[in-house]
Design a protein that fits this description.
Elements lengths: L2 H12 L2 E3 L1 H29 L5 H27 L7 H21 L3 H24 L1 E3 L10
Parallel strand pairs: 1-2
Helix pairs in contact: 2-3, 2-5, 3-4, 4-5
Length: 150
């Protein structure tokens, strides 16, 4: 009767990706920083549309910082995939986010708000999924000299 909990424990453990600590933390910090920047974009846009026109400059400047964080996230995801032997999907998702955010900048600069707003919501959702995944399913690979504790 002890098998079902053990099987469930192994199944949950198997769904986790393990990588060296420096890759895990680099990706976690970059993905979380990017998510915070995207959330900041929504706040600044909201303040702008309520009449505080000075927030548009802040929105533009924050976009540059947020986009830079995304590039750090993309590099970390590639490092997780190739030398880290992790899954490839975070790198592909990061590349897709770069394309989406580039389109977001173009739409915003051209004041095409009918595309800019919904794309921003999509970017926020994708960024949230990535950040949550780095904290819930990405684990530090234990050194070969350490026991499993079981």
């Amino acid at each position: 009767m002890n098998n079902p909990p053990l099987v469930a424990e192994r199944s949950a453990e198997a769904s986790c990706t393990r990588a060296p600590a420096w890759i895990v933390w680099w990706l976690r910090i970059a993905a979380t920083g990017h998510l915070v920047g995207v959330l900041g974009q929504a706040v600044l846009a909201g303040l702008f549309v309520t009449g505080n026109v000075d927030m548009l400059t802040q929105h533009r400047d924050n976009a540059g910082v947020t986009h830079a964080m995304l590039y750090l996230q993309l590099v970390a995801a590639i490092v997780l995939w190739r030398p880290g032997r992790g899954p490839s999907w975070p790198a592909w998702a990061g590349a897709a986010l770069v394309a989406l955010e580039t389109a977001q900048v173009v739409l915003g600069q051209n004041r095409i708000l009918a595309g800019h707003f919904p794309l921003g919501v999509t970017i926020f959702g994708a960024s949230a999924v990535m950040a949550v995944w780095t904290w819930r399913s990405l684990r530090v690979r234990q050194g070969s000299g350490q026991g499993s504790g079981a």
